[in-house]
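BUG: 3D viewer hangs when loading the predicted structure for this chain

Environment: internal workstation, default settings.
Expected: structure renders.
Actual: progress bar stalls at 90%.

Input used:
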Amino acid sequence: MSIFINASSRVLVQGMTGKEGRKHTQRMIMSGTRIVGGVTPGKSGESVLFEEDPVPVFGSMVEAVAATNADVSVVFVPPKFAKAAVLEAIEAEIALCVVITEGIPVHDSIEFLAAAKDSGTRVIGPNCPGLISPGKSNVGIIPAHISGPGRIGLVSKSGTLTYQMMYELRDHGFSTAVGIGGDPVVGTTHIDVLQAFQDDPETDIIVMIGEIGGDAEERAAEYIAANITKPVVGYVAGFTAPPGKTMGHAGAIITGSAGTAAAKKEALEAAGVLVGETPSLTAQLARDAIARLRGSR
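Structure tokens produced before the viewer hung:
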């Protein structure tokens, strides 16, 4: 099992003919993802060669979904075109739209996320690395070689820390790793992913990576306390961040005591989450949790 994607996922790449789209389509194909087409307005009927196999290009998402029966799209288009691309995916009734694009204006994100909420489309992102179920499917920019399949579920705001945690825990592997993105407004939240892992019979423990700014981690802590029975290990990036300074992501800004790493750590620990103060210490906490699970069986 995995969450949101699997070996049968049929993926369209919005912006496949651009530089980033081509590069990452190649990487996704090499990691086993079923790429069934690309979408670029005005280029219907063309194709792009990957590993000597042509991948068709469609002019619209509606056309592409009708031709390929795709259920996932991944967006690699410039910020000013991203809203139109996501709205097009929603119009085509795609089940999952993964928005990699960074720098999308917040008002554009709010608009397409509201449209997604009213439809059947789940949006991951924007400004995210995507998600991977190792050995099954890889949608986005997460390097496939850093870890293999296993029984850990990972949800993270940070792309870089997603990669580091996957590498740190490569000896155990992952059911699915989901990078939800670090913008102030995102489609799929920590809570959404936590519940999906709770419901997944092949995920044994959950690793959650947050960061300073906002209250998403505090809300996740409340949800964990009330709804999650599987072991959860956490890390909050930004213990040394100065108040009032944006650090990395647009959403990573703290004011006074609100949104600090210490406050988030306290809330998570109160919910029973084991929180490490570095990624390596967090990985060790996850290994210890796995050992305890195995010892209890």
